[in-house]
């Protein structure tokens, strides 16, 4: 297995960029030795993609397999997605290749997919893999590779929405267990209800005229949050002893490197373990905050902070209080 790429992660397998030009790379035996061959594809990315498809034979309109679809989807569609979506899709693609790769697209039916759903041990992951496969078949239909998406609408496993809320005592325990830097990060995340990816991407350029101005990573929604209350205290503490250059991240790791979402997840797990808490994840902070604001100021206010396009999405976040039932006197007297 080759080394993991450090650059050009948006390019498909066996495609490389060097010196402003693109190449198709493969291994061949030359003079009795196994050597890597770089075949030029040109300097224009669109032209390079076209030549790449020709070399892999994925341009023919008929007789295409799921493997052919995976190759083209990886080449043309995945690079248009945000970084985290690219990473997740490419984790699931090998499973799609392994299970259905040799099947012709026109022969793929719901029973073929149902067998996978019933046998795969991780039900939620199985749902995600099948959802990606359905999305890929939509593209295949658009490209003229299939006449019908026969697996669209297939029944998946029922999923229970997470309803975890962080209590006041749990929140105090998390803050007490966190190092000073991560304590500030947790407070900022709680006040703003930002997703983990948005918290990690914050730089001093996002601080503008007394407001925290960002475009969310997931939905590309612009929001502007007034820096008041505990958020103002956090920002003031972060400024202490530094020069807040616009390109400098609010939160970084050793050597000034940006804090990644993966590293934040690692540190949060350790904070939770030191606090001796049950299974709480970072996203529960967002759910807890939106529940607080939804109950105090209404769902529309919570929706605006969450940058949801539909209030129904926000409603799925808000965990209602337990409904208390007090029996009327007549019901009590009539018992027995």
Give a short synopsis of this structure:
This protein is mainly alpha-helical and 336 residues long. The protein has a domain at 169-317: Intergrase catalytic core (hpI Integrase, Chain A). The chain is built from 14 helices and six strands.
The CATH class of the domain at 169-317 turns out to be: Mainly Alpha
What is the CA–CA distance across the termini? 75 Å
Helix percent band: 40-55%
Q: Count of helices?
A: 14
- The rounded Rg comes to 26 Å
So, CATH architecture of the domain at 169-317? Orthogonal Bundle
- Chain-averaged pLDDT: 86
What's the story with the biggest beta sheet? 3 strands, antiparallel
Strand tally, please?
Answer: 6
SS-based class = mainly alpha
Essential attributes:
hpI Integrase, Chain A, mainly alpha, 14 helices, 336 residues
Can you describe this structure?
It is a single chain. With 336 residues, this protein is mainly α. It has a domain at 169-317: hpI Integrase, Chain A, CATH 1.10.443. It is built from 14 helices and six strands. It has helices at residues 45-56, 66-77, 83-100, 110-119, 123-142, 168-177, 180-192, 196-201, 229-239, 261-275, 283-297, 299-306, 311-317, 329-334; strands at 15-18, 21-30, 33-42, 207-208, 211-215, 222-226. The strands form two sheets. The chain has a three-stranded antiparallel β-sheet with strand order 1-2-3. It has a three-stranded antiparallel β-sheet with strand order 4-5-6, with no helix packed on it. The protein starts with 14 loop residues before the first strand and ends with a helix.
